Amino acid sequence: MGFSTFSIVFKITICLFSFSILFGSSNAQLNATFYASTCPNVSSIVRGVIQQTLQSDPRIGASLLRLHFHDCFVNGCDGSILLDDSSSIQSEKNAAPNSVSPQWKPNVSECP
C-alpha cells in the first residue's frame, strides 16, 4: 500500500512540475514582423545569406542552431551573443566557447 501511494504522489508531482515548466515560464512574445520597420527585407536577406553560405559550408545549419541555443535557451532570446565587445564587457560573441564556429559571425549583421 505504501509503495502505491508513493507512486501516485510521485506521478502527480512530476505532472505538476512538467506543466509549470511548460506553461509557467513562457512570457516572451516572439513576433514574425519584429523587424518590419527596421529591416523590412530581413526574411529574404537571411534566406539569401544562408543559401549562399550553405554552398561553401554545409555545416552552417548546425552552427546557427548552436547559436540559437546559446542565445535563446540559456538566458532568453536577447541577442546578447551578437553584441560586440565594449570597454567594460567581453561579449558572448567573442567568448572562447563561441570561437568554435566562427563562420556565422560575418553573416549575422546585415541590417543595422
UniProtKB/TrEMBL annotation:
Residues 29-101 form the Plant heme peroxidase family profile domain. Residues 1-28 form the signal peptide. Its cofactor is heme b; Ca(2+). Residues 92-106 have a biased composition (Polar residues). GO terms for biological process: hydrogen peroxide catabolic process; response to oxidative stress. The keyword Glycoprotein applies. It catalyses: 2 a phenolic donor + H2O2 = 2 a phenolic radical donor + 2 H2O. The active site is at H70. Binds 2 calcium ions per subunit. Ca(2+) binds at D71, V74, G76, D78, S80, E92. GO terms for molecular function: heme binding; lactoperoxidase activity; metal ion binding. It comes from the Eukaryota. Belongs to the peroxidase family. This is Plant heme peroxidase family profile domain-containing protein. The lineage of its organism: Eukaryota, Viridiplantae, Streptophyta, Embryophyta, Tracheophyta.
